[in-house]
Amino acid sequence: MALVTRASSDIGVATVQALAQSGADLALALESEPPPHFIESLRSYGGRVVWFPITGSPNGVQAAQLVRSVVAALGRIDVLVANTIRRVEGQIDDEDVDEDALDEQMATDVRSVIALIKATSKSMSDGGRVVALGSSLADRVGTPGLADFAATRAAIAAFCRGAAHDLAPRGITVNVVQIGAIESQADHGLSREMLAAEREANVLRRLGKPSEVADAIMFLAGPGAAFITGSVLNVDGGYNA
């Protein structure tokens, strides 16, 4: 049984489709109710699919409530895909920077992810999988205006390394998929100039596909990754090469 946040995003959709095709039961954590045809398309593969309301930046109490609701409805949690991300551009010396947006980015990208992982780990089955979505900018900031966002991604990578130690006695693995420039980002507030700069900065000189990110998540969530924990898998076209 897999719990996936932001399951209606492009990467989320690709991930839940792959999980459904593998036969997994799904808990979709979303800010609003998904279209019925989306739920039915996932159920057509034979698994149970239930959606659960969640705020964009759940705190510890809200994350715990979500986990309790999921376990009550579906019995257990074997996989958590923490696909929770907000990206704000702005140089650190910009006098007109939107401080509220930066605070919201920190709440969404760091505090809510940590809250979700902590809450889920307390109820997760032994031998479970935690996969958090990050960004290759955590390791290399090759574009101005992304220092704050990169800091949030670095925080998640560091937290997951520590969490891997804490959860190892229960056989639970904790890993991060760090993404680069993905096709769908052009339609979700990322400037085309920024996207073009990131595309030209990677070795393959192209944008990634949501399905390619989903493939990486599926690998880390599957039995073939049982001896991989505290690791980062870059799906970035060689941005960090």
TrEMBL record:
Keywords: Oxidoreductase
Domain of life of the organism encoding this protein: Bacteria
Stored Gene3D superfamilies: NAD(P)-binding Rossmann-like Domain
Name of the molecule in the record: NAD(P)-dependent dehydrogenase (Short-subunit alcohol dehydrogenase family)
InterPro entries, per database record: NAD(P)-bd_dom_sf, SDR_fam
MF (Gene Ontology): oxidoreductase activity
Stored PANTHER family: OXIDOREDUCTASE, SHORT-CHAIN DEHYDROGENASE/REDUCTASE FAMILY (AFU_ORTHOLOGUE AFUA_5G02870), SHORT-CHAIN DEHYDROGENASE_REDUCTASE FAMILY PROTEIN
Family: Belongs to the short-chain dehydrogenases/reductases (SDR) family.
